[in-house]
Design a protein that fits this description.
Rossmann fold; 16% strand; globular; alpha/beta; 19 helices; 401 residues
Length: 401
């Protein structure tokens, strides 16, 4: 951990994210909460927070007399939530060294500690387990080859067996942990599902989107796209633009990404979300969403969604569009996500390798009966897998003094 921290400090000399990581930990003040009742939730970054959020907010509503502390490992998570009012304190997690962990735990003195997914920090776990307070993990998703099960991680495995409860996303993870001698495990499901359903059911209107989609065309929203995704989409751009109101939300709002999209769709009238209201007379072909934080809400305007990342390391969030019961299309790298694997088998999600396959799927979704069957599969999946957060909160309610 000392070597890791040194590398980040060195990298911070020329990397903005590393600089924020170092500076944030240096300037933050850790509160003394020894006399308070405290719930602490730790997330690696923003994605993990979205999984923990339903639990965090339900607990706050149930027990507002507690102090609620939220920590992040990554600056992207910490800075995005800096004005999040549900948390009483939003902090960076100090580096997992014995002295740091001991000081931090002694200061906030959590009665309930919640770790999201798989941030396995040995020193924090050891000190928390020794205090005999409630320590849980939520939305844990592992495969049999996960680094956790390597010989050099036996000490972490030992501490995980000591925590109060581990809630898994799926049956497979539950079975894997049981095969390694865990008896503190329970399947709850993926709490992200509760969060995306909550967003979908929350009233939202967007005058810019509505101005763009006011014609008779169906809406195709391409979310979290990378360059390879744009290559696929631009390969059939004429057919897309003739048939759909095409909305593209790049994963990164860098000049490079925006320019790449503009280049690939040159010759068509592009409008940027940041430019404001669109009227019919503008004759816009493509709307580029150059604003962070609204993608999960604007999927409600879509007839079909395309999710980026599948031609890189892995797809991005497919549950956000699925919450609106619309078909979801993405590239071939999706195996890390249970919902993607399951819904592809049910023919309700679709994976593509090239533009030709994308055309075929879009054409098949023109068939109303097929489209309805796709919707039915998604609806059944969400109905069957929702309420993970309620199960976890009910468990924690019984743990709170």
């Amino acid at each position: 951990m000392n070597i890791y921290a040194f590398i980040i400090r060195f990298t911070s000399l020329f990397n903005r994210k590393a600089k924020l990581w170092v500076k944030g930990r240096k300037i933050q003040h850790i509160p003394d909460l020894v006399t308070e009742k405290v719930v602490w939730m730790h997330c690696s970054s923003l994605g993990e927070f979205e999984q923990g959020r339903p639990i965090f907010e339900k607990l706050k509503k149930y027990r507002p007399d507690y102090i609620y502390v939220l920590t992040f490992f990554s600056p992207s998570g910490h800075n995005a939530l800096i004005n999040y009012k549900i948390a009483d304190y939003i902090l960076y997690l100090p580096t997992d060294l014995p002295k740091n962990a001991k000081k931090f735990i002694a200061s906030i003195n959590p009665e309930i500690s919640i770790f999201v997914k798989y941030d396995f920090w040995y020193n924090y776990l050891k000190i928390l387990n020794d205090t005999k307070h409630t320590v849980i993990f939520i939305s844990v998703l592992l495969n049999k080859n996960h680094r956790l099960f390597k010989t050099f991680n036996k000490i972490i495995l030992f501490q995980l067996k000591r925590v109060t409860k581990i809630f898994t996303q799926d049956e497979a993870t539950l079975d894997i942990l049981k095969s390694h001698g865990f008896d503190n495990v329970e399947k709850a499901g993926d709490s992200r599902i509760d969060r995306v359903i909550e967003i979908a059911e929350t009233k939202y209107t967007d005058s810019i989107i509505e101005g763009f989609v006011s014609n008779e065309k169906k809406v195709l929203i391409c979310g979290s796209t990378w360059e390879k995704d744009i290559d696929i989409l631009s390969g059939i751009k004429r057919k897309l633009i003739e048939k759909y109101n095409l909305i593209i939300a790049p994963h990164e709002l860098s000049d490079k990404q925006i320019n790449y999209i503009s280049q690939k769709f040159s010759g068509y009238n592009i409008h940027f979300y940041s430019k404001g209201i669109i009227s019919i007379k503008d004759k816009v072909d493509i709307l580029i969403v150059d604003k962070i934080g609204i993608l999960s809400r604007i999927y409600r305007y879509a007839y079909i969604s395309y999710i980026g990342g599948g031609f890189g390391k892995s797809i991005h969030n497919t549950l956000e569009p699925a919450a609106y019961i619309i078909p979801v299309i993405f590239g071939p790298n999706y195996k890390r996500f249970t919902e993607a694997t399951h819904l592809i088998l049910k023919k309700s999600f679709f994976s593509i390798d090239d533009g030709n396959q994308l055309e075929e799927i879009l054409l098949s979704l023109d068939n109303k009966d097929f489209y309805n069957e796709v919707q039915k599969g998604i609806r059944n999946f969400l109905e069957k897998n929702k309420n993970a957060s309620l199960q976890i909160v009910k468990y924690l309610e019984n743990q709170m003094l």
